[in-house]
Amino acid sequence: METRKGTKPRHTISQYEKRVELVNPPPMTDTLQADPDKLDVEEMTHAELRDAWKKLSEKLRTPVSDPDEDVRLNVLKMEIWNEMKSRTDAEPPECPECGSQRWSQSFGDPKECGGCGLHLTTRHDSLIEEVDAYWQEVTSAEATA
Ligand SMILES: [Zn+2]
Predict the structure, then answer these.
(1) CA of 133 to the centre of ligand 1 (A)
(2) How many whole angstroms from 112 Cα to the centroid of ligand 1?
(3) pLDDT tens, residue by residue, 53-106
(4) Where are the domains of the chain?
(5) What is the distance in A from the centroid of ligand 1 to the CA of 10?
(6) What pLDDT is attached to residue 32?
(7) Sequence-ordered list of residues with C-beta below 8 angstroms from that of 94, at least 6 positions apart, any chain
């Protein structure tokens, strides 16, 4: 039996692969590529939201050079977060200084109160745990809707 194996020059294969890519572009399922105006977070499953949230968090750990892109990604991240939050009954702990329930944290930084800017340090061990538990609950909650 005649085998054609090895008779094809390499460039033919890569040209073929390139054509396949053009005919079948990768599906636009990556949330990060999606237009946030068209992204319907309410229609996303919790697993999709969590996945998108994770990807965004990782992406935003390193500075985004394009300021527009930075804003877009942060708005998207906030939308996803708010949607996940709306699907759980979990309540964030209150800031001991101002009572705000908005907490944020940049990678490598301490947790920070969105109301008064209080930075949580080792003095606030139990509060840090409560915020972590709350975040954990929001990101891990299964959709009940
Ligand atoms: Zn505060």
Answers:
(1) 18
(2) 8
(3) 989 988 888 888 999 999 999 899 999 999 999 999 889 999 999 999 999 987
(4) 36-86, 92-145
(5) 63
(6) 57
(7) 100, 101
